[in-house]
Design goal:
It is a single chain. The chain is an all-beta fold and 122 residues long. The protein is 0% helix and 57% strand. The protein is built from no helices and eleven strands. The protein is elongated, with a radius of gyration of 14 Å.
Length: 122
């Protein structure tokens, strides 16, 4: 089985910083795109940032210039550095990865972490 384990969430004041981590483990042959999404009650889950296997990145307009996504392919880990946090960044943040578990598996399978709460106070 494949597991994505997230860490780094918590409570911070507006203007502060947090660094989220997500490590993939289990039966993994190769990982393609990895990303971070967030969701608040009553709203759809939205993309925050994604990063390709060669570290090409894309960000939501609302976080561009404040957040930085990165990855360590040797550790099967993706990070999200969040600076200049705002109250509207408060959400549950989810890690996502496209994974091939076996060399004979066709295409990519989508996996999600359990989510980690980020709360930004005024």
């Amino acid at each position: 089985q494949v597991q994505l384990v997230e860490s780094g969430g918590g409570l911070v004041q507006a203007g502060g910083s947090l660094r989220l981590s997500c490590a993939a483990s289990g039966s993994i042959f190769r990982i393609n795109v990895m990303g971070w999404y967030r969701q608040v009650p009553g709203k759809q889950r939205e993309l925050v940032a994604v990063i390709s296997s060669r570290s090409i990145t894309n960000y939501a307009d609302s976080v561009k210039g404040r957040f930085t996504i990165s990855r360590d392919n040797a550790k099967n880990t993706v990070y999200l550095q969040m600076n200049s946090l705002k109250p509207e960044d408060t959400a549950v943040y989810y890690c996502n990865a496209e994974i091939k578990t076996h060399i004979l598996q066709p295409g990519w399978s989508d996996y999600w972490g359990q989510g980690t709460q980020v709360t930004v106070s005024s």
